[in-house]
Write a structure and sequence with these properties.
Layout (H helix, E strand, L loop, with lengths): L3 E3 H8 L3 H10 L4 E4 L2 E5 H11 L4 H32 L8 H16 L5 H12 L3 H7 L1 H17 L1 H5 L4 H19 L1
């Protein structure tokens, strides 16, 4: 007898969100079965997909690399938008449009979730964050920006680059300044 899994159980088994499970179904990677209005997946198919996505399989390696590149691309796109605005406005705080805010939120969420963030991320974000206007910070979310700042500070403090070369600590200092600014924005 075939066993069926709920969306929640499927997501847990695959180590992804329920939204991703729905995307897998939409792309045809998983076949969904509806029973009394509820969606289920065959355990056998879920296990096969999990094995395909695993580190050992060729498709798993390609899938993992694609995920890494997609995350980096999202971050780079957001940074390019911020930098373009920063260059055009010189030293004034940067105000972003709704689409740019949405892209930046996505990039920040990606970086917060990234387990392999490095000192280069600290360097890359240090100036960009300082340039964001108060209004822009509030639209992005002060809590989200504070979480990002905390992560970048932790990475910077532990990075070999900043331990070997004291001049590199300037990037961490910029993030600390930004975090202080976020705390002031919270009070006003």
């Amino acid at each position: 007898m075939e066993q069926y899994l709920t969306i929640s159980k499927t997501a847990q088994l695959l180590g992804v969100s329920e939204r991703t499970v729905r995307r897998f179904a939409k792309k045809g990677l998983l076949n969904k079965v509806k029973v009394k209005g509820k969606v289920y997946f065959l355990e056998k198919e879920v296990t096969q997909l999990d094995n395909t996505r695993s580190e050992g399989g060729r498709l798993g390696i390609i899938y993992t690399r694609l995920q890494e590149l997609t995350k980096k691309n999202t971050i780079l796109e957001a940074r390019v938008r911020v930098l373009e605005l920063a260059l055009s406005s010189r030293q004034e705080p940067v105000s972003l449009g709704a689409d740019d805010i949405k892209t930046l939120k996505k990039a920040i969420s990606t970086l917060i979730k990234n387990k392999h963030a490095s000192f280069s991320d600290v360097v890359a974000w240090s100036d960009d964050l300082l340039r964001l206007s108060r209004d822009c910070c509030k639209k992005i979310g002060l809590k989200k920006l504070e979480t990002l700042s905390n992560k970048l500070i932790l990475i910077g403090d532990e990075a070999q680059e900043s331990l070997r070369d004291a001049s590199k600590s300037i990037y961490v200092d910029k993030i600390i300044i930004f975090k202080d600014r976020i705390n002031k924005f919270k009070k006003t």
